[in-house]
């Protein structure tokens, strides 16, 4: 299939409200056909950036190009984008079909063509046969599908979605994540998706743009963002992690008097932080050369269904006490082997999993 979707080029986009920067010099390229997620905490500027792409918000300065064409001054209805809002923004008194037909009506599309496109869009979101229903008779998940059908009814090349699943319960949300991603793949669009849910972003995206305080903090694949977070904010926001301050010198890291091996290429010596993900830690029965080890005491052990979460207290010489979280899968082989609270254990962390980030890349 030839790729008829469009790339999006965002350059130096800045938006202020008074002296508050909602967006600050954001530059970002979205590749044609890509599923890109804007991920950040509440108030970080995600919606503002999406509204700049849609044309509902004018930036103070900066450029937005769709397929090479400058659109920053173009009104929303001429941008050819499909849009799904967080609160659905459906007309409650109208039928499903009337809601989905609405963009076609605005564009002056003929009745017959509209009918066909509505039918097709409803089938795409698995609502065929429900066109006559009133929107206020539908469940939350169905309403979200109607909003989606309305967004894709005119086959846009760019689809923008702002937290479209946040009103749904967890199970339905997780099903819809997979469905939305499949829909994106089958419809050949460029999708920009907004969420504050890191797991959702990791599940759905080709690439993730992490936004905080109106600024782009890191852009990368889910794997890169998770395995190699660029600063403490991202390490903390995405997945679980414990951060231990470490000093790097001469190819080794030290935390207090504890010496750790490093596999990573670090460009200089100085202050770093060891990022420890709970699932990277393991319980060591004997020590080998390819890992770093910590002796600790099990403080807490919590059954969480598919995994067991343990809090392990370390007492590091010349540093003090610190707690690490350890996550073990709850497989049948583990039964009876899990350490108990107050048991002394040795935690291992593969050198390859011992990721250090520069302390200066912190929140400041
Ligand atoms: P997000 O979608 O990431 O939660 P928003 O883009 O909605 O964040 O908002 C980013 C920041 O800009 C917030 O602090 C918000 O209060 C502020 N903001 C957004 N719109 C306006 C507005 N019209 N007037 C003043 N402040 C605004
Ligand atoms: Mg928002």
Describe this structure in words.
The chain has 364 residues and is α+β, with helices and mostly antiparallel strands. It folds into two domains: 4-232, 3-Layer(aba) Sandwich (Rossmann fold); 240-363, RNA polymerase II/Efflux pump adaptor protein, barrel-sandwich hybrid domain (OB fold (Dihydrolipoamide Acetyltransferase, E2P)), CATH 2.40.50. Helix content is 23%, strand content 36%. The protein has eight helices and 20 strands. The protein has helices spanning 46-54, 96-106, 111-124, 140-152, 170-187, 198-204, 222-227, 232-237; strands at residues 8-17, 20-30, 35-39, 61-66, 69-70, 81-84, 158-162, 190-195, 207-212, 215-220, 242-249, 252-255, 258-261, 270-276, 281-283, 291-303, 307-316, 320-329, 344-350, 355-358. Strands 6-7-8-3-9-10 form a six-stranded mixed sheet, sandwiched between helices. A five-stranded antiparallel sheet has the order 13-12-11-14-20. A five-stranded antiparallel sheet has the order 15-19-16-17-18, with no helix packed on it. Helix 2 (96-106) runs parallel beside helix 4 (140-152). The longest helix is centred in the middle third of the chain and has 18 residues, at 170-187. It is elongated, with a radius of gyration of 25 Å. The two termini are 46 Å apart. The structure holds adenosine-5'-diphosphate and magnesium ion.
Nutshell version of this structure?
By secondary structure, the chain is an alpha+beta fold.
């Amino acid at each position: 299939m030839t790729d008829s979707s469009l790339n999006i080029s965002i350059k130096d986009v800045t938006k202020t409200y008074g002296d508050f920067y909602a967006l600050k010099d954001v530059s970002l390229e979205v590749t044609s056909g890509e599923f890109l997620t804007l991920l950040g905490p509440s108030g970080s500027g995600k919606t503002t950036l999406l509204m700049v792409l849609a044309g509902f918000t004018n930036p103070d300065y900066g450029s937005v190009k769709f397929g090479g064409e400058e659109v920053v001054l173009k009104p929303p209805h001429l941008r050819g984008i499909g849009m799904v809002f967080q609160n659905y923004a459906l007309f409650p008194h109208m039928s499903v079909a009337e809601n989905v037909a609405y963009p076609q009506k605005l564009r002056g599309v003929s009745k017959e063509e509209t009918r066909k496109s509505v039918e097709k869009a409803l089938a795409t979101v698995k609502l065929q046969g429900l066109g006559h229903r009133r929107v206020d008779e539908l469940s939350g998940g169905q309403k979200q599908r109607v909003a989606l059908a309305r967004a894709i009814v005119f086959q846009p090349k760019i689809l923008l979605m702002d937290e479209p699943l946040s009103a749904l319960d967890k199970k339905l949300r997780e099903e819809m994540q997979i469905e939305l991603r499949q829909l994106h793949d089958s419809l050949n669009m460029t999708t920009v998706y907004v969420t504050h849910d890191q797991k959702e972003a990791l599940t759905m995206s080709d690439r993730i743009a992490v936004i905080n305080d109106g600024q782009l903090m890191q852009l990368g694949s889910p794997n890169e963002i998770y395995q190699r977070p660029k600063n403490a904010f991202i390490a903390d926001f995405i997945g679980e992690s414990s951060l231990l301050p470490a000093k790097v010198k001469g190819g080794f890291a030290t935390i207090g008097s504890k010496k750790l091996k490093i596999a990573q290429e670090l460009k200089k010596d100085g202050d770093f932080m060891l990022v420890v993900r709970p699932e990277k830690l393991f319980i060591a029965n004997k020590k080998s050369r390819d890992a770093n080890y910590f002796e600790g005491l099990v403080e807490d052990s919590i059954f969480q269904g598919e995994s067991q979460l343990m809090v392990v207290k370390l007492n590091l010489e010349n540093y003090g006490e610190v707690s690490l979280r350890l996550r073990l899968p709850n497989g049948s082989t583990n039964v009876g082997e899990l350490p108990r609270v107050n048991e002394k254990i040795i935690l291992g962390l593969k050198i390859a999993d011992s990721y250090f980030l520069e302390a200066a890349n912190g929140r400041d």
